[in-house]
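Annex B. Sample input.
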Amino acid sequence: MDTRINDFEQIDHKTCVSICDAIGERLQQNMRTETELPPRLRELVDELRRRDDELH
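Annex B, continued. Sample output.
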């Protein structure tokens, strides 16, 4: 089952920011700061950053 949201406009900006913040907090809790992100996770974080920049 593919539950991915393909259209960014399906959720409002406030909800999107809340989800991203929650994911960021969870990542900070589970990963040590000196640990390098795996390449795929780094790509996804970069993509989130690009999409966020496009919305602003």
